[in-house]
Amino acid sequence: MQLQSLFTMMKQLFFSISFLMLILLSSACGSGQEKDFSNSKIYPHVNCLADTNLNYALFLPPQYEKDKPLPLIILFDSHGDGLLPVNLFSNEAAKNGFIIAGSNNSKNGMTMEQTTAIYRSMLADITARFSIEKKAVYLCGFSGGSRVAGSIAITEGRIAGVVGCGAGLPGINQQPVSPFSYLAVVGNQDFNFTEMKMLDESLENAGYQHHLLVFDGIHQWPPKELIPDIFTWLSLDAMRQQAIPADRAFIDRFIEKNDQSASRLATEGKLPEQLDTYIKMKHYLQRLTDIAPLDSEIKRLSAEKSVLSYREQQQQLYDLEQKLQQDYLPQIPVQGTGWWSIETNRLSALAKQADKPAQSQVYQRVLGSLSMNCYMYCNNALKQHDLPAASRFIEIYRLVDPQNAEHRYMAAKVAAMQNNKEGVYSALQQAFGLGFKDYKRLKSDPDFEAFRQDKKFQEMVAGK
Known about the structure:
The chain is of the alpha/beta class. The chain has helices at residues 2-32, 83-96, 112-129, 144-156, 193-205, 227-240, 248-267, 271-285, 292-302, 305-328, 337-350, 357-383, 387-400, 406-417, 421-433, 439-444, 455-461, and strands spanning 42-47, 55-59, 70-76, 99-103, 132-142, 161-165, 181-187, 210-215.
């Protein structure tokens, strides 16, 4: 009886300790995991507590405190590299007091259901760990990640705003669950530039809170120099939505800086640029201060002859770009490499017209659009194991966009499917030379399964 009594006591003690540990673990998962993280430090991989297959890069700004909710930006990279935008945004997030988290799982090729599930898991995990201002949850993405951000804002709701970089809203046939602001960001050589301009006009006509930021560049995440402008928009928008207190000094600094810029442009006779500055001020300051003087200046400048002439020229360039797209894109599946060699040489020469920058950008965007479409044709042919077609599209891809590493990676895939070992390694070396860095994809790509144990393959990916 004594042994049985002792066993019963030990059993009760075991269950008591287990219950206590469960409470402590539950408490940590529900509200205390922020103790494991330091402010002002970037964490490349934070596993979601409910699903460790999902993880994200994280940055907590120096202002973060457990009992003081801060705005949140969730970032979507098109290749699932959450650390890239977190690194890019962290300095300004620190200055403006934003928590930022970049998904390491969401990437191009996933269904909307998959990316939405990733977002829900991320948001639930971040909300459980940290103190979030729920009225100031923003989404930001690049390229396919931009469309992911837009689709989530439309279908899920409770999103304050979206920053769409390099691509617009997805073609979802439904009204947004709740309204959100939209900041479009695009390079003037990006093949999606015209799409973003048209979206900006549509949002203006629909009465959305919106703006379009244009930088000098191609299809890419915005350059570091533009990030302060993005965070100024986000901070002012959070004030506008009363998610954070209005900061009059912050608003006045923005007004003074842009007033000075507008005055300088007027002195230099750059009236279209001056008009753009006033439009930016209006969009940024709506519902925060009196914008009637800005409306007057915008109306006055819009009637100026030089501005009207500039807008007419811009429209002509948009029309030219649209015609070139209509002429060239249908030729990808029907014309041979000889024809494309001649045409790409011609387009490339026109894209390098130093004395005609606006026209040059049109041809750069057309080449960029051809590059993206060649990628899609190549990808579809590879999925169907149509290697002759894939090889032809890859060669056109190379002619259209010679500095893009992706066509060499695809050439390596074709060689792998043909069990051409030398072809695989030659194409991969060329891809690396052109800047290929997606080693995670290379290591997991099933087309290279037969080469994983090969010494040369292991040497190529060692330490990557």
